[in-house]
Design brief:
GO terms for molecular function: electron transfer activity; heme binding; metal ion binding; oxidoreductase activity. This protein is mainly α. It folds into three domains: 79 residues; 99 residues, Cytochrome c-like domain (Cytochrome Bc1 Complex, Chain D, domain 2); 90 residues, Cytochrome Bc1 Complex, Chain D, domain 2 (Orthogonal Bundle), CATH 1.10.760.10. Helix content is 53%, strand content 7%. It has a two-stranded antiparallel ribbon. A two-stranded antiparallel ribbon has the order 3-4. Helix 6 packs across helix 14, helix 8 packs across helix 14 and helix 10 crosses helix 11.
Length: 302
């Protein structure tokens, strides 16, 4: 990555830009001073389509002046704005700075709207139609890409409507998830379990915890191997919200169902990342979004 962030690329871009501008001036000068030997009728001897002849006329002055003005404008623009590599320009303008200014302007404009919701508890806020309309828009903009527009998720992306929570479904846990993000890691466990046969037996035992179709004989053989999983998923397979370890007894399969899917999870492990949203959303927006997400799987208290 350092190859793309070194000082060389700044100098490369700045130098290439400046050379291009100078090359335009050189091209203009050469074309204006080079003498072409012409015939007595002021043609160069080049003919196209039988009767189109190239005349030996100089470039129009208005075009030359416009060309020079364009080059001068480019140099002035490069001095004032960031055009030459990482040089900021005399005005100190940047697209990132402009974005922050416009973003803050919008936030200031909507601040009074969110102020009306800031003192309400999420459980009460989830019953406010105006707040939930805003929460739905926030969800569509920042959450639907992964969890779906109906919040029912897909493989690898949790369903937010079924009250099955990896990290806890109370408003404070949801707020923490939205604000700081989450990273759930299940390491590859095959080495701790034993042979490939042991892994398959364990997969059947895991399926048996939720009453899913399984081979009961294999499940019995795999039960002792579950000790390698109990530290995270619990002795009864009920999961652990402190670790983001799923409940294995509820027949909800985030990464696929069946012997093959469970075996793959044991052999290869799983890593799930929910990115933090606090750099995109304000505290007030997170408060409303928390109430909306909580309300997807809970009956609001009016």
């Amino acid at each position: 990555m350092s190859d793309f962030t070194s000082e060389f690329w700044h100098l490369y871009v700045a130098g290439l830009t400046l050379i291009s501008i100078i090359a335009c001036l050189v091209l203009l000068w050469v074309s204006g001073t080079t003498k072409v030997k012409a015939h007595s009728d002021n043609t160069t001897g080049h003919v196209w389509d039988e009767d189109l002849r190239e005349m030996n006329n100089p470039l129009p002055k208005w075009w030359v002046y416009l060309f020079i003005i364009t080059v001068v404008f480019g140099l002035l623009y490069g001095a004032l704005y960031p055009m030459f590599g990482s040089m900021q320009g005399k005005l100190g303008w940047s697209s990132a700075g402009q974005y922050e200014v416009e973003k803050q302007r919008k936030l200031d404009a909507i601040a009074p709207l969110y102020a009306a919701f800031s003192e309400m508890e999420p459980e009460k806020l989830a019953g406010d139609p105006a707040a939930m309309a805003i929460g739905e828009r926030l969800f569509m903009n920042y959450c639907a890409q992964c969890h779906g527009s109906d919040a029912r998720g897909s493989r690898g992306f949790p369903n937010l409507t079924n009250n099955d929570w990896l990290w806890g479904g109370d408003p404070e846990s949801i707020r923490t998830t939205i604000t700081h993000g989450r990273m759930g890691v299940m390491p590859p466990m095959a080495a701790a379990v034993g042979t490939a046969e042991d892994v398959t037996n364990l997969a059947h035992y895991v399926l048996s915890l939720s009453g899913s179709p399984h081979d009961s004989v294999r499940a019995t053989l795999g039960k002792p191997k579950y000790a390698a999983c109990a530290a995270c998923h619990g002795a009864e397979g009920l999961g652990n919200t402190a670790l983001g370890a799923p409940n294995l007894t509820d027949n909800i399969w985030l990464h696929g169902w069946g012997v093959e899917a469970v075996t793959r999870a044991i052999n290869e492990g799983i890593t799930n990342v929910m990115p933090a949203q606090n750099h995109l959303l304000t505290e007030q927006q997170i408060h409303v979004l928390t109430a909306y997400v909580w309300g997807l799987s809970n009956r609001p208290k009016n």
